[in-house]
Design goal:
This protein is mainly alpha-helical. The chain has helices spanning 2-13, 18-30, 40-58, 68-95, 107-126, 133-143, 148-180, 183-206, 210-216; strands spanning 62-63, 66-67. It has a two-stranded antiparallel ribbon. Helix 3 (40-58) packs parallel to helix 5 (107-126) and helix 6 runs antiparallel to helix 7 (148-180). The two termini are 16 Å apart.
């Protein structure tokens, strides 16, 4: 039980590491054209994707004869396609600048939630966190191969902790956008670069360069030694 709690707390402290920046970029990027949509579905999807691929990688390395590397490549390509749809929507918004941001609760927002969920699954499959003491313990439990359900729940708990920070960030950002009436401005000018950033991160995952990318981001996270 304590290890589950530590996994959640360690996930929260991921906000101090380079690996959290990629989570934030993809989470915000997938909803760039619908800034009023909450990222909870993305977090749930990421928990599922990371727990599944994380467990496979820590144990046999394959499932039904398909290696975790192949799964990550397919997931990265699909995530890149999601990023492409965000980018194309951004170009359409540029051509029709008077188009309002879709309100929460309509069909477009529902589709955005679906995209966020599956985007979370695909991103969770290619994402790799910064190494920490707690995460090493989670890998050790999974590597034993004796506690399948517990291992996957530990992986999910780790991502859940990071997801709490993502949801908090989104809540603060949305409050600011609502207060200053900038939802449409945000969607109009930021959706294209954010969509391209999703594609970029997806391609990094396909090429197996996620850890290298996070290494380059270390100067942006000077407090990463506080992680659990």
């Amino acid at each position: 039980m304590m290890l589950f709690l530590y996994a959640v707390l360690a996930g929260i402290t991921l906000a101090l590491t380079p690996s959290f920046l990629s989570i934030l970029l993809v989470s915000v990027g997938l909803h760039a054209n619908r800034p009023t949509v909450r990222p909870s579905m993305f977090v749930v999807g990421m928990m599922a994707g990371f727990a599944t691929v994380g467990y496979i990688s820590a144990t046999s390395g394959s499932i039904f004869g398909i290696s975790s590397q192949v799964i990550q490549i397919v997931a990265g390509v699909l995530l890149a396609l999601f990023g492409l749809t965000v980018t194309l929507e951004g170009f359409k918004r540029q051509q029709a600048p008077t188009s309002p941001v879709q309100p929460v609760g309509n069909t477009s927002s529902a589709l955005s939630d679906v995209r966020g969920f599956f985007g979370g699954i695909f991103f969770g499959a290619i994402w790799s966190p910064s190494v920490s003491a707690v995460f090493t313990s989670v890998l050790a439990v999974a590597g034993s191969g004796r506690f399948v359900a517990a291992s996957m729940l530990l992986f999910a708990a780790y991502v859940f902790g990071a997801g709490l920070v993502v949801i908090l960030f989104d809540h603060v950002m949305n409050d600011l956008l609502v207060r200053y009436g900038r939802h449409h401005t945000f969607a109009r000018f930021v959706s294209i670069p954010l969509g391209l950033s999703v594609i970029f991160i997806a391609l990094i995952g396909v090429l197996g360069l996620m850890d290298t990318f996070h290494t380059f981001l270390i100067p942006l996270t000077p407090f990463m030694y506080f992680t659990l």
